[in-house]
Specification:
globular; 3 helices; 139 residues; three-stranded antiparallel sheet; alpha+beta
Length: 139
């Protein structure tokens, strides 16, 4: 399956159907604009994760300013994020919201695994699709 191929409009009734960066697992995402703040709802099997919708614009801006590739550094919330990675940035007190973009306690990590494919599908980033150690950069 080509990396950028996806389906859906991003609504709850027609979610985006996406693939993890390694192209090994499929998952769904949709926007919930009624939530305060608006969120992205990510469904992986029976697990549901929530991410602050602002991550799309904020991460795209950060990557554009960086001007180079950044490692995803996928990690669950309970594990430390690799330094200078997308995961570390999405948890940092120095990012635009001052902390976690993941909103569901216990499931706030894995930003690189789930948010980066959406950003690729929306045309915001270029994403690598190797078995491990993937990176992304702004377009």
């Amino acid at each position: 399956m080509p990396a950028a191929e996806f389906s859906g409009t991003g609504s709850a009734n027609d979610p985006w159907v996406l693939w993890t960066p390694s192209l090994q697992s499929q998952f769904n995402m949709h926007k919930d604009d009624d939530h305060d703040p608006p969120i992205i709802v990510c469904t992986v099997g029976k697990t549901i994760l929530h991410y602050d919708l602002r991550i799309l614009d904020d991460m795209a801006a950060m990557l554009k300013e960086r001007g180079d590739w950044m490692e995803l550094g996928n990690a669950d919330e309970q594990k430390p994020a690799k330094e200078d990675s997308v995961e570390a940035w999405a948890r940092s007190a120095d990012n635009p919201i001052g902390g976690w973009y993941g909103l569901k306690k216990g499931l706030r990590g894995r930003v690189g695994n789930y948010v980066s494919p959406l950003m690729e599908a929306l045309g915001l980033v270029e994403l690598e699709h190797d078995a491990r150690g993937n990176r992304m950069r702004a377009l």
